[in-house]
Structures are given as structure tokens and as C-alpha cells.
Write a structure and sequence with these properties.
- The structure is a single chain.
- The mean pLDDT is 92.
- The strands form six sheets. A five-stranded mixed β-barrel has the order 9-10-13-11-12. Strands 20-19-21-22-23 form a five-stranded mixed β-sheet, sandwiched between helices. A three-stranded antiparallel β-sheet has the order 4-6-5.
- By secondary structure, the chain is α+β, with helices and mostly antiparallel strands.
- The protein is elongated.
- It has two domains: 310 residues, Bira Bifunctional Protein, Domain 2 (BirA Bifunctional Protein, domain 2, 2-Layer Sandwich); 103 residues, 3-Layer(aba) Sandwich (Rossmann fold), CATH 3.40.50.
- Helices cover 31% and strands 29% of the residues.
- It contains twelve helices and 23 strands.
- It binds one RNA strand through strand 13 and helix 10.
RNA sequence: CGGGCUGUAGUGUAAUGGUAGCACGAGUCCUUCGGGAGGAUUUACUCCGGGUUCAAAUCCCGGCAGCCCGACCA
């Protein structure tokens, strides 16, 4: 993409009405725009990052056999009344409104009840199980206090998956399988080292613990106790001698850390389906309630956590798997015909080699472009200037490394053209 | 929902109760081009409503908005 065609611009200063690192950097660099407290727009660069995260998540969901859907944001009050969760006393994050005829509607803060209601009408026999469905959907939550930039928003993008099983065994097996899939996702995104499966208190319908995926992050909202050797953690809310013993461990093995919840999985058992009247006819002809488990990942929150975790004093450092572009091509003398035509040539070559390239073709000063590139955080930077042309080379720099490296400019037919670039890309996060 | 802090051009900031200024940005022109270049010129601002005062960005009251701490977070 030509940077001159990008409508967003970086700001010289970070906004003063934001304290959180993620919002300051993402706004300054033009990834998001603030609409209101806890409400942000995704700009071209931000949307690219979100879409890449989304793609990674999507692939794992498909491997699990889940079908993608998209449910409505406007929700039926009657469905939520079945579980008693329409009342503000039970759920304090509802946004509600009315149709012109005074019918009350809710804005989806979750889709558990509506999805049960929907799947119920398609699954009447044991032959119709299991069913796995997921969606990427904006959730609306009337938080009394939005905070931490895009970590805790009033409107945010979430991937939610729901598994409907005919038996407890199937449900638990899928729960386990999904846990592994989630770990793979966080690994792929670049948060593998700092993300812990964390035991937390169960939901309204579960006796046992639920599991959270917590990424170690100072600006996170949760306190967890981490066992680094076993690569697991326990949320503060259930951290006590009794529970730790139950898990067969000792409290001295745990370290207190701050973390951000990037995923959450829940086993509802049959409780919720019973409340909603979701029964099916089993092999033996008897009526049984379906088992439900749900699986969430905060997609936009992940972008915020990545920004918090991967940044230096110059700007963002995107892991290569989620970066808006893989290569940032900088032409330092855009008005010099010789230099810019060479840059254009390389831009095309890189694209033909299969890379997503942001080409800074603007008529700006060298320093301006270099600083901008640091702020945007694209993993690989290639610089073309009069200087590099003289040396018949160009400079390539890995954003997360301090030392700048120079490599020779291979011809586009050269075998090692792509391999060389790839080897540099592999050095990034 | 309790508490604290803060609202000045698009952005960032100044202004004892007394002429609202500066920088960046944006527009035009010229010179520049390896870490946010220089000159000339143009452009744009006191959150809203009330009060005190000869006079309010400044003091008081109310609203709205933003951030932070706590509570909450299925």
C-alpha cells in the first residue's frame, strides 16, 4: 500500500486525555480513533491488525470444526427473561432501548441465550450433536467505568464460540481440545510465552472452576498467581491453600503477577440448556438436556495487550504474524527521480515475492519518515536513499533489534531475494 | 456507583480578574532531504448554561465531557 494514500496521519504527540500506553500509541500512530470513553473506531491500520488476529483465530476455530455465524446485535427481551438475565439487577451492563411501538430490546453484551434459542430449533435428536458455532461480533457493555484504552471498552470485538454436546464426555473432550487450540492461537499471535491457562471461579451455572487465558501485562486488570514451571496460573479470586492443594501443588510455587484476560472458557454443563428448555431425544428415546460450553477471545483487547507488551520508547513493535504490513519500504528522497523509481521497482518486486508492503512514498523529510516508521512498528524496514544507491545496496532493519543491519540488494530474479528477506523477518518477534 | 483531578485553535501548550499568545498541523511560494528541516505568507481556539464584577479562560454554582483510584467485570 502506498502510504501517501493512507488517510490517517501520525500525531507528533500522544493524546493527553489518555494515560494507558495502548491507547496513547494506537491513537498517536493512527490505528484507532476515539469516539467516546470506551468507544473506539478501527482505522485502516488498526483494522488490518484486527483482521490478522481474526484470521489466526478463525483458522483454529475451523480446525475445531466450528461453523461461523453472525448473530444480531439487537436482542429479544423474552429470551433473556427465561434465565432471569434480562433484569438490570442480574446483569448490570445492559444497553437497552425500545422500538417505536414500545417493545423493549437489548443490545447484545453476550449471545449465550440467543444462540441456545436458535440452535435449539435445529437440534432435536442426538444425531444433530455435537454442534459448534462461532462468530466475530461486537459486544456492547454498559460499563460503569471504561478504562485502560481498548482493554476495557463499552463496544468491542469478540470471538465467541459455543459448543453443544449430547453428553458430558463429549463436552469435556471438546473443552480440552479447545483449550489446546486457544494456546495455539496465543502462541501464533506472539503471546505464547506470557499467556497462562488460569483457573478462576466458575460462572453462575458451574460448580467447578472456569478457565481464563491471562497474558502477563502490567496494565492488566487481574491479579493472578503464576506457576512458571507448570505453565499454569490461578486467579486471585480463588487463590487459597485449599484450592492449591486440591490442584496438587503448593503455594510457594506461585508468583503474584498482573495480567490481562485475553480469553475465557466456560463449561455450563446442562444447567443453562435446562433453563432455556433445550432438550433432545437421545438414542434410548429419552429426553435429555444439551450440554453447553462457551469460549471467548477478546479480539480488539488483544490488539491493546500486544501494544502494551510489544513497544519501546519509539513506538509499537508488532509481532510479524499480526503486523499490519510485513515490510515498511522507506524512500528517503522521494523527489529524487532516480531514488524513487528504484524504490517503486523494489515495491513491486516485494509484492510479487508475496509480501504485504507499506511503501512510504510521501515527500517528507528523512527524519520524519524514520520516526514514523518506528512509531508504526512494522517488523521489517527497508530503506532506499541516494546513499544506498551509491553502495548498490539497501538497508534492512528489524524493528525489534537495536542494531541496524545492511544487506546487499539482490536482483529480483536472484534466488536468495526472498530467502534473505525471510531470514530477516524470522528474526522479528 | 462512591472519591479525586482536568476541560483554551485540528494537536500540544501559555496567559496576577484587565489586548487570548506560542509551537506543531493545514494552505500557498522558495530553498531543503539519513532521525520529526529553514524562510515568507495565510488559517484556526477559551466545553455549555447561569452568577459575582467596571471587567471572567481565570472566582462561584449547575450541567456535560475526559482521565485516574476504588467498587464491579457472567
Amino acid at each position: 500500500m502506498l502510504q501517501s494514500q493512507l488517510f490517517t496521519k501520525t500525531k507528533r504527540q500522544a493524546p493527553t486525555d489518555e494515560i494507558s500506553k495502548n491507547a496513547r500509541l494506537l491513537i498517536q500512530a493512527g490505528f484507532i480513533n476515539k469516539e467516546m470513553a470506551g468507544v473506539y473506531d478501527l482505522l485502516p491500520l488498526g483494522l488490518r491488525v484486527v483482521n490478522r488476529i481474526r484470521k489466526i483465530v478463525s483458522e483454529e476455530m475451523e480446525k475445531l470444526g466450528s461453523e461461523e455465524i453472525s448473530m444480531s446485535s439487537l436482542q429479544n427481551k423474552e429470551i433473556w427473561k427465561k434465565t432471569g438475565r434480562w433484569e438490570d439487577k442480574a446483569v448490570d451492563v445492559w444497553f437497552k432501548s425500545k422500538f417505536k411501538n414500545d417493545t423493549e430490546v437489548g443490545f447484545g453484551w453476550s449471545h449465550e441465550e440467543p444462540i441456545i434459542e436458535m440452535i435449539k430449533s435445529y437440534a432435536e435428536s442426538y444425531k444433530d450433536f455435537p454442534r459448534y458455532v462461532h462468530q466475530f461480533q461486537n459486544k456492547m457493555r454498559n460499563e460503569v467505568r471504561a478504562k485502560s484504552g481498548i482493554i476495557r471498552c463499552r463496544e468491542f470485538l469478540m470471538k465467541d464460540m459455543y459448543a453443544f454436546c449430547a453428553s458430558e464426555e463429549d463436552n469435556l473432550a471438546f473443552y480440552k481440545k479447545s483449550t489446546d487450540a486457544y494456546l495455539k492461537i496465543f502462541e501464533h499471535i506472539g503471546l505464547g510465552d506470557i499467556t497462562y491457562v488460569t483457573s478462576a471461579s466458575g460462572g453462575v451455572f458451574t460448580d467447578k472452576f472456569s478457565h481464563e487465558f491471562q497474558a502477563l501485562c502490567d496494565s492488566g486488570e487481574d491479579i493472578i498467581y503464576v506457576n512458571k514451571n507448570k505453565k499454569i496460573a490461578v486467579n486471585e479470586e480463588i487463590y487459597n491453600e485449599e484450592n492449591i492443594k486440591k490442584m496438587g501443588m503448593e503455594m510457594k510455587d506461585f508468583e503474584k503477577r498482573k495480567a490481562a484476560e485475553v480469553g475465557n472458557i466456560f463449561n455450563f454443563g446442562t444447567g443453562k440448556c435446562e433453563q432455556m428448555g433445550f432438550y433432545f431425544i437421545d438414542k434410548d428415546g429419552t429426553k435429555k438436556p444439551a450440554h453447553l460450553s462457551s469460549y471467548g477471545i477478546g479480539i480488539t483487547r488483544l490488539m491493546g495487550v500486544l501494544t502494551e507488551v510489544f513497544a519501546d520508547d519509539k513506538g509499537i513493535i508488532w509481532p510479524k504474524e499480526v503486523a499490519p504490513f510485513q515490510i515498511h519500504l522507506l524512500c528517503l528522497q522521494q523527489d529524487n527521480q532516480e531514488v524513487s523509481s528504484k524504490a517503486k521497482e523494489l515495491y513491486i518486486d516485494l509484492q510479487e515475492a508475496g509480501y504485504e508492503v507499506l511503501y512510504d512514498d510521501r515527500s517528507e523529510s528523512a527524519g520524519f519518515k524514520l520516526r514514523d516508521a518506528d512509531l508504526l512498528g512494522v517488523p521489517l524496514r527497508i530503506v532506499i536513499s541516494g546513499k544506498t544507491l551509491e553502495k548498490e545496496s539497501y538497508e534492512i532493519k528489524v524493528r525489534c533489534l537495536k542494531d541496524q543491519k545492511i544487506m546487499p540488494l539482490p536482483k529480483k530474479d536472484s534466488i536468495d531475494f526472498k530467502a534473505t528477506i525471510q531470514s530477516y523477518l524470522n528474526q522479528s518477534i
